[in-house]
Fold this sequence. Notes:
Strand content: 15-25%
Helix content: 25-40%
Distance between the termini: 51 Å
Structural class: alpha/beta
CATH class of the largest domain: Alpha Beta
Bound molecules: zinc ion
CATH architecture of the largest domain: 3-Layer(aba) Sandwich
Mean pLDDT: 96
Largest sheet: 6 strands, mixed
Number of helices: 9
CATH topology of the largest domain: Udp-n-acetylmuramoylalanyl-d-glutamate--2,6- Diaminopimelate Ligase, Chain: A, domain 1
Number of domains: 2
Order of helices and strands: HEEHEHEHHEEHEEHEHEHE
Radius of gyration: 19 Å
Low-confidence stretches: none
Amino acid sequence: MVTVRDVVEVLDEIAPRELAEDWDRVGPQVVPPGAWGREVGRVLVCLDVTLEVAREACEGDVVVSHHPLIFRPLSRVEGRVHVLLREVLDSGAVYVAVHTNWDRAEGGVADSLARRLNLRVLRETGSGARLCEVRDVEGLLNAGRNLSPLFRVFGPVGDWRRVLVAPGSVPSEVVGEAERFGVDAVIGGEVGYHVRCELLWSGVSVVELGHDYSELPGVQALARALSDKLEGVDVRVVPPPDVEVSR
Length: 247
Ligand SMILES: [Zn+2]
C-alpha cells in the first residue's frame, strides 16, 4: 500500500526541497487531519490548482501542482479564493507543491523543455537555466510551434549553435548569462519587456513560448517519474485548458 507519506517522500527524492528558492513555498500545503498514513489511490499532477482540479480531486488523492496553491500569505478569503478554498478543503485530498525545486532538479522543468525542443543540455547556468547545444534550428523552431500556440521569435533566426533554456518567467540574471556563455538565443516561457530589450540589444534573439506551455513538458515528466516510482498508483496529468488566442 502506498501512503500519503510515501508519495511525499518520493517527491522529495525527485525534486529535493533544498533546491527551492528561499522565497518559494514548496512541499505539502493542504493536509486533512489523519491523512499522512492514508492509502493513496490516485495522484493528480497539474500546473495550477484550478477549480476544475479541485472538483476532480477526492479523498484518497494527492494533488501535485507545479505552482503552489498557497504562495503569498492570505490576508482575506473572498470571491474566487473563497470558492477555490472551499472546493480544495471539501475534496478531502492532500495538496503538495513542487515548484522551483522541480525547475532546477535533474530531469525537471528546464531539462524537460530542452529535451522537448530537441536540444542537448550542456550545463546548468547558475540561475537554473540550461545552456544547450542546437542540433537543428528548423527542428527546434518546429518543436516550439508544436508545443505552444503562443510561440514567438524576437530578433533574427540564424545558424544558432548555443541557446539558453529558461522555462516559466525568465529571470533578469539570464541577460548576463547569455553574454557570458555567448549564446545566440534565449528560449523562455515569459520574457519581460526590459529583459527582452537587453537581450536583443546584445544581439541575442528571444524565443517566447508562454509561461504555461514552457512548463508543460516538466509537468508531464513529473507524472512519468512519479508513475515509475509509485507502483499500483494511478498517476495522471490534469492538463490546463488550452488558451484561446486571437489577433
Ligand atoms: Zn511557472
